[in-house]
Design brief:
Elements (H helix, E strand, L loop, with lengths): L24 H7 L39 H8 L6 H9 L1 H4 L13 H12 L24 H4 L5 H7 L25 H12 L6 H8 L3 H12 L2
Helix pairs in contact: 1-5, 3-5, 7-10, 8-9, 8-10
Length: 231
């Protein structure tokens, strides 16, 4: 069952700015003040606590040479993920929702307009900013469309434990990371549900997870979420 070793990085795009709708770069410069403690940008920018952000648009995730990225970001990059508008928007909104093992200490920026302004500011430091359009979208939305009824489902933890036998063939029940397989124990239930439905709706690109999620009913996903979220 080691072919499932890349089963879950459990990234999920939170509800965010509409794809490629950039905001006001001047206002974004103000928002960027929240980032300067860790990230440099512009002429002479170097890697510090975080990597420099010049040319971040279109760059492969975890690819700046010499910078020590977290395992989660390295794994996404190896899977072919690049920093599109949508990916950056989701990461800024909630870093740990997109990348479970990120070391970025920033809690996230919930304000959609502020994120759109920040992305407009960052785009100015792309090699070809005019080639990063506001529309049509160049990225794929990763937020699954779920009814309030699905989101309100209360999973049966005992049923989830029964269903989890296949998951724990790769993901340690102890919550430890091993062999490059990320932990999923302790995930907030809502994040787990959103991630699984994103795979089920084929919004996330992992074909193995798409197959696994397609087999699960809404109640089964809720049960797994309850089981893995429990302490």
């Amino acid at each position: 069952m080691r072919w499932l070793s890349f089963l879950l990085f459990m990234g999920l795009m939170t509800s965010g700015a509409k794809a490629n709708e950039f905001g006001d770069a001047k206002l974004g410069a103000k928002v960027y003040e929240q980032c300067v403690a860790c990230h440099q940008i512009g002429k002479g920018a170097t890697d510090t606590v975080g990597p420099a952000l010049n040319g971040v648009f279109g760059r492969q995730v975890g690819s700046v040479k010499g910078y020590a990225y977290s395992d989660g970001l390295v794994r996404l990059g190896k899977n072919g993920m690049t920093w599109t508008f949508d990916a950056l928007d989701a990461y800024i909104a909630n870093p740990r929702a997109l990348v479970s093992q990120t070391r970025m200490g920033f809690a996230g920026l919930a304000d959609e307009k502020a994120r759109a302004n920040l992305l407009a500011y960052l785009r100015q430091f792309s090699a070809s900013p005019a080639n990063i359009p506001e529309a049509p979208p160049t990225g794929t939305a990763h937020t699954p469309k779920l009814s309030p009824e699905i989101l309100a489902l209360k999973g049966d933890r005992a049923f989830g434990e029964y269903l989890a036998s296949e998951c724990v063939t790769c993901h340690q029940a102890t919550g430890k990371s091993t062999g490059g397989v990320p932990p999923i124990v302790g995930w907030p239930a809502k994040q787990f549900v959103l991630a699984m439905h994103a795979y089920k709706q084929k919004l996330r690109p992992n074909p193995v997870m798409q197959m696994m999620a397609s087999r699960l009913a809404d109640e089964e996903i809720a049960a797994l979420a309850a089981y893995f979220a429990a302490p």
